[in-house]
């Protein structure tokens, strides 16, 4: 229990850095939210085809853990966002994640360039399944594989 407590405690330097963050109120539709700016800034969409989204992302220091590797929570966030983007229909609300499973196979370090590819596995009514691969773009090494299922409104037939 003591090891878990030590792992979760932040250092004085980390606490000071967090206390200096300035978070302005979000104006919906006019600017990025804190979440979008912090977690998603830097994703570059390279290709969009029906059932496929391919992106590039360079690992920023802000999303690394204490060992300098891309945090598993940041990988989960990328799987969620890119997996959701591939099934999004313009004009409809975003789909809701139903289930997500991620296999963490390797690690990405700060400044590594990643390729994130999401493909639709299938659709049934408002339910869709996707697979998201996160690879090191330089070496081709697979960092993570995510399976993501989502539910959303169907487009109107009218």
TrEMBL record:
Occurrences of domain Thioesterase (ranges): 72-121
Described purpose of this protein according to its UniProt entry: Catalyzes the hydrolysis of acyl-CoAs into free fatty acids and coenzyme A (CoASH), regulating their respective intracellular levels. Has acyl-CoA thioesterase activity towards medium (C12) and long-chain (C18) fatty acyl-CoA substrates. Can also hydrolyze 3-hydroxyphenylacetyl-CoA and 3,4-dihydroxyphenylacetyl-CoA (in vitro). May play a role in controlling adaptive thermogenesis.
CDD domains named among the record's database cross-references: PaaI_thioesterase
GO molecular function: fatty acyl-CoA hydrolase activity
Any one of the GO BP annotations: lipid metabolic process
UniProt GO cellular component terms: cytosol; mitochondrion; nucleus; spindle
Organism the protein comes from: Linum tenue
Record-linked Gene3D superfamilies: Hotdog Thioesterase
High-level lineage: Eukaryota, Viridiplantae, Streptophyta, Embryophyta, Tracheophyta
Keyword terms: Acetylation, Cytoplasm, Cytoskeleton, Hydrolase, Lipid metabolism, Mitochondrion, Nucleus
Catalytic activity as recorded in UniProt: a fatty acyl-CoA + H2O = a fatty acid + CoA + H(+)
Sequence similarity: Belongs to the thioesterase PaaI family.
Cellular compartment(s): Cytoplasm, Cytoskeleton, Spindle; Cytoplasm, Cytosol; Mitochondrion; Nucleus
Record note on quaternary structure: Homotetramer. Interacts with PCTP.
InterPro entries per the UniProt record, alphabetical: ACOT13, HotDog_dom_sf, Thioestr_dom
Domain of life: Eukaryota
Protein name: Acyl-coenzyme A thioesterase 13
